[in-house]
Amino acid sequence: MSDTENSPSPESPLLTAARGRRPERLPVWFMRQAGRSLPEYRARREGNAMLQACQDPDLVTELTLQPVRRHGVDAAILFSDIVVPLVVAGIDVDIVAGIGPVLERPVRSLEDVRALPRLDPAELGFLDTAVRRLVNELDGLPLIGFSGAPFTLAAYLIEGGPSKDHALTKAFMYGRPDLWDELLSTLAEYASIFLRTQAAAGASVLQLFDSWAGALPATAYERYVLPYTRRVFASLDDLDVPRIHFGVGTGELLGLMAQAGAEVVGVDWRVPLSQALSRIGPGRSVQGNLDPAILLADWGVIEAAVREVVEQGRGAPGHIVNLGHGVLPQTDPEILTRVVELVHSLPGR
């Protein structure tokens, strides 16, 4: 990790909670907090394609800082996208408005897998620059770096874009286990390089997003996904950086996800946090898990839901308050600010 003078104190609320202790003040941040809910974000992004913006240190810095200034959250998360490692490696991916990441040529054969390029850390200069700038600008507030997980990256590569059932991905996984191993090994290397670059530049927390892992039954996740996720986290063991592991629709996988190696398990909104804690087991902090849609309700409903999530989270060694997925675009930014103020008003211990 960077030895910059602006590195966060180990006693920052978020780092304390991530390391399995109880800070005096509960930490809170929001997934997709730098996004379409902020008018200043929409204004700054205008005329800049998503993948272009993710590789522009000036834009990355500004868009990462916007929600920190606006909401007073306890951490910034790097403005990026989970497919950026694929793009930097040289894979032809585009983010299409209203659809998501789309590949010109999906990866579905032995030749396709063998043709995948290696991710050269030397091509990540923009990432190093952006993270170092942010660490200086944040002046002690933690910066969360992140990457897409091997399975989720594989799903985009094989499907050629977003999918409701991930049928092609699962058929590839079940039907060609040797080739699956080769593909996931390459993608685990991508994720490791991307995360280590951020940590070396000063990111003080790392999050691995496995957005589509919830499409799998537990037996398949344990056999075909968990070993590669473990490999990513194991590659970060020498860093003094707590790690968060989050997936969508992963309520049935939480026990296995807890075995992957991260100090914090993110919980999506589908499972009550109290139930999630029993599935995760002891020794792990948790992150989550307010339903993003609740933020569209009246304040009384929102306040009650926040208090309930905070109360249920007291059963964990540490709790980072967050949503159970990303901020919805139609969310009123003032509501997010009020949620931060409410969380900060509640006792952390």
Largest sheet: 7 strands, parallel
Distance between the termini: 29 Å
Strand content: 5-15%
Mean pLDDT comes to 95
| Low-confidence parts | none
Provide the number of structural domains: 1
- Kindly identify the CATH topology: TIM Barrel
Based on helices, strands and strand pairing, what is the structural class? alpha/beta
- Shape-level CATH architecture: Alpha-Beta Barrel
Order of adjacent strands in the largest pleated sheet: 1-4-5-6-7-8-9
Reading the helices and strands in chain order gives: HHHHEHEEHHEHHHEHHEHEHEHEH
Q: Give the proportion of residues in helices.
A: 40-55%
Shape: globular
Under CATH at level 1, the class stands as: Alpha Beta
Radius of gyration from the CA trace?
19 Å
Instruction: Give the number of DSSP strands.
Output: 9
Tally of helical runs: 16
Summarize the structure.
The protein has 349 residues and is of the alpha/beta class. It has a single domain (13-345), classed as TIM Barrel, CATH 3.20.20.210. Helix content is 45%, strand content 12%.
Molecular structure report:
The chain is an alpha/beta fold. The chain has a single domain (13-345), classed as TIM Barrel (Alpha-Beta Barrel). The protein has helices at residues 13-18, 39-45, 50-54, 57-71, 84-89, 110-114, 125-138, 150-159, 167-175, 177-201, 218-224, 226-234, 254-257, 273-280, 299-313, 333-345, and strands spanning 76-77, 93-96, 100-103, 143-148, 205-210, 243-247, 264-266, 285-290, 319-323. The strands form two sheets. It has a seven-stranded parallel β-sheet with strand order 1-4-5-6-7-8-9. Helix 15 links the parallel strand 8 and strand 9. Helix 4 runs parallel beside helix 7. It is globular, with a radius of gyration of 19 Å. The mean pLDDT is 95.
